[in-house]
């Protein structure tokens, strides 16, 4: 992953925006457990038709942080999505014409149920939840993002993986015509990621289909992407077309590109530096230039939910 050059810093990162202030307050109120305001029926996901469409029937989640979300502008214009360019502003600029419908997701490998599913059918059985999560990029910046998604654990259980399934491997669409960044060999396409079954069935992991109550914009990974808030951002693979249950630890794109720098686990860990920079602190996108960097928390602050997954694992070796 590239180191951020001063030229990549947008003016909106420097002056913090207030446009979404009232909306953010609404989101915060809605996220309080037991709030009477939102009572969504458990009828399964109400399927988003396209980018920007308002999503209905979203339930708040007790797993949301009460930290203030970043602005819509931060979340949708400062992105990493190498399929649409390597600069932070490239995905917003280059993904506008991408057409994420119709979309097919293939589930295969060691599971009782496998097959190819239209996106709409794939998500329909599951409840849509809002999960406001702290997100930490390996490049030492962070954001708070109000995702809308379905529980990955629920999805996985529904496919009934067999005892041979030890990992879940994910792949992004590979189509250099629709994803122009794939004509450059910056990564070995398609983008690949993976989780252990235990990680993938942790209640924090979700497949996101929206942000700010609306269908996912292309630059954020439409129509469906992974969100694992205790890991560095690169684990959150976008534009997923394949989920495969496998026995052996799958190779991931960043590991293949630079194994000394990016490991399979990629847990947020302030005590293990990246070989080229410290991971002890992070810059919150949108904060004032005068604000000091904030300390990075172990497992990005989600230790109580996930630390047990790594009991006995040497985190300095399994980074
Ligand atoms: N397919 C794909 N998924 C990807 C990436 C990518 O380049 N390609 N970048 C990752 C990285 S490094 C980060 S930090 C997050 C950023 O997600 P966001 O732009 O929605 O905040 O997406 C991740 N998912
Ligand atoms: Mo990242």
Structural summary, described in words:
The chain is 16% helix and 21% strand. The protein has 319 residues and is an alpha+beta fold. The protein has a single domain, classed as Alpha-Beta Complex (Sulfite Oxidase, Chain A, domain 2). The strands form 2 sheets. Strands 1, 4, 5, 8, 9, 10, 12 and 13 form an 8-stranded mixed beta sheet that branches. The protein has a 5-stranded mixed beta sheet with strand order 3-2-11-6-7. The structure holds ligand MTE and molybdenum atom. The ligand Nc1nc2c(c(=O)[nH]1)N[C@H]1C(S)=C(S)[C@@H](COP(=O)(O)O)O[C@H]1N2 binds next to loops.
Q: What layout of secondary structure does this protein have?
A:
Blueprint: H1 11-14, H2 21-31, E1 59-60, H3 72-77, H4 90-94, E2 104-109, E3 115-118, H5 119-123, E4 129-136, E5 141-151, H6 152-158, E6 167-172, E7 192-196, H7 197-200, E8 206-211, E9 214-215, E10 225-227, E11 240-246, H8 253-257, E12 281-284, E13 294-295, H9 303-306
Parallel strand pairs: 1-4, 2-11, 5-12
Antiparallel strand pairs: 2-3, 4-5, 5-8, 6-7, 6-11, 8-9, 8-10, 12-13
The ligand Nc1nc2c(c(=O)[nH]1)N[C@H]1C(S)=C(S)[C@@H](COP(=O)(O)O)O[C@H]1N2 binds at residues 1, 79-83, 137, 172, 191, 220-221, 233-234, 236-239.
């Amino acid at each position: 992953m590239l180191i951020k050059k001063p030229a990549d810093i947008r003016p909106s990162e420097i002056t913090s925006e207030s446009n979404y202030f009232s909306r953010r307050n609404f989101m915060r109120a809605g996220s309080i457990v037991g709030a009477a305001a939102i009572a969504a029926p458990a009828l399964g996901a109400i399927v988003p038709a396209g980018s920007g469409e308002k999503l209905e029937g979203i339930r708040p989640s007790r797993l949301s942080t009460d930290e203030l979300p970043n602005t819509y502008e931060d979340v949708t214009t400062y992105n990493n999505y190498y399929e649409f360019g390597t600069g932070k502003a490239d995905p917003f600029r280059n993904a506008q014409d991408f057409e994420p419908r119709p979309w097919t997701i293939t589930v295969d490998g060691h599971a009782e149920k496998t097959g190819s599913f239209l996106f709409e059918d794939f998500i329909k059985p599951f409840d849509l939840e809002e999960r406001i999560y702290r997100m930490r990029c390996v490049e030492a910046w962070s954001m708070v993002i109000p995702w809308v998604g379905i529980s990955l654990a629920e999805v996985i259980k529904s496919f009934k993986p067999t005892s041979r399934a030890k990992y879940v491997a994910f792949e992004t669409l590979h189509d250099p015509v629709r994803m122009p960044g794939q004509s450059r060999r910056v990564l070995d396409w398609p983008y690949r990621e993976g989780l252990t079954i235990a990680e993938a069935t942790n209640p924090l992991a979700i497949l996101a289909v929206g942000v700010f109550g609306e269908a996912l914009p292309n630059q954020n990974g439409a129509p469906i992407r992974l969100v694992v808030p205790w890991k560095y951002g690169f684990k959150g693979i976008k534009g997923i077309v394949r989920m495969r249950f496998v026995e052996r630890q799958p190779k991931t794109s960043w590991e293949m590109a630079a194994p000394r720098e990016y490991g399979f686990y990629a847990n947020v860990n302030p005590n293990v530096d990246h070989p080229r920079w410290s991971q002890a602190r992070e810059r919150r996108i949108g904060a004032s230039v005068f604000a000091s960097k904030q300390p990075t928390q172990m497992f990005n602050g989600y230790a109580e939910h996930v630390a047990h997954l790594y009991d006995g694992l040497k985190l300095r070796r399994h980074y």
